[in-house]
Design a protein that fits this description.
- The chain is α+β, with helices and mostly antiparallel strands.
- The chain contains two helices and eight strands.
- This is DUF1541 domain-containing protein.
């Protein structure tokens, strides 16, 4: 009789142990699934939210491809300014901020011209990312430009070469202004680089040297 009780107890104990093991096996897949889902959600979140450094880099992309210096050649039809505020050979302080290293630099005036200057948004001819609110393109740097200046919203083709992919690119006029525009040489305030015959700076972006 004692043996029968012992065997029954052993059988009951084994059944309890097996049931416990079976319960652990059933919960494991759910736990793994939750872990995998959490990892996927974290990956999606990281992909959707660029870091602050990446955001700053995208904002600076506009003029990263800009040719600061130029040969100094200008369109044949571009008219010299008759009485510029800053004549060729004089100096002026720049307050332009459309390029790094420009604001506060002393510029030597290499050329002064009366024209219409435009701020434009364009898609580079090579299909690169759109460039918005680029400063500046002058009337004579637009394909088949007539005598009448363009207005905000007009669509044009650029012939300027200030930046990669600009020549031949389709653009939209964001703003237009009749003014004196200057070609300048200066020392980059951030890099110390000598910039020669930079195009363009408007008269509003210059002030007398004190």
């Amino acid at each position: 009789m004692d043996n029968i009780l012992k065997m029954s107890f052993a059988a009951l104990f084994s059944a309890v142990v097996l049931a416990a093991c079976g319960g652990n096996d059933e919960t494991t897949p759910d736990s793994n699934a939750n872990t995998e889902n959490d990892a996927a959600e974290n990956t999606e979140t990281n992909e959707e939210a660029p870091s602050e450094e990446e955001s700053d880099s995208m904002e600076e992309m506009d003029h990263s491809r800009m040719d600061h210096s130029s040969s100094g050649e200008v369109p044949e039809e571009l008219a010299d300014a008759q009485n510029p505020t800053y004549p060729v050979g004089s100096e002026a302080v720049m307050s332009a901020n459309h390029m790094r290293g420009m604001d506060g630099a002393v510029a030597a005036i290499e050329g002064a011209y009366d024209t219409t200057v435009y701020m434009v948004t364009y898609t580079p001819a090579a299909g690169e990312e759109k460039v918005e609110d680029h400063k500046w393109v002058i009337h004579e740097e637009i394909e088949n430009a007539g005598e009448q200046p363009y207005e905000q919203g007009d669509e044009v083709i650029l012939e300027a070469d200030h930046m990669e992919g600009m020549d031949g690119a389709a653009a939209v006029i964001d703003a237009a202004e009749d003014t004196t525009v200057y070609m300048v040489s200066y020392t980059d305030m951030e890099t110390g680089e000598e910039v020669e015959n930079h195009k363009w700076v408007t008269e509003d972006e210059l002030s007398p040297v004190e």
